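Q: What structure does this chain adopt?
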Amino acid sequence: MKPSYPLLVFLLALSPILLISQSIEGVWQLTKVEVETTDDKISYDSQPGLLLIQNGYYSMAMVMSREKRPLFSKENPQWKDIDQMKKANSYASNAGTYTISGNRFEAKHMVAKYPNNMEEEGPYYMYTEEVTLEMPHSSTFELKDNYLYLTGELKNEDGSLAQKRTTIWKRLN
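A:
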């Protein structure tokens, strides 16, 4: 059997393109959020979000609400009242380094909106008026076509599962 050199050259030329298309590295736009609790499962189109992953570094910024955030009033553009602060509180941002082990994406936050999120050891926490949730430093990930699915488990203070949250990101490049 004779080797097919044109086919071999074609496959070698195509292999970097195939590797890039299956890589977690790139620029991603948040498209959807799915939240699963013991009682319910909801899915909603997301507000703006951007995730950059490149060479062991990442940066993420997103609005974590179902509704578009209202603008600050023109009469009181400063953060002088609690309603103004609540409007800004749905914004999340962090950046740092990451490692991948199997299908786990482990983030080490170098900078974050909330100072406790930069702790190197142990979990960090999200506080609301109703509940305190333990947030993971790692998520599972799955690549499907041009979409990245990141799933993290948030726990109650007693360690029980509060919710499973999946953010779905569309590849921009």
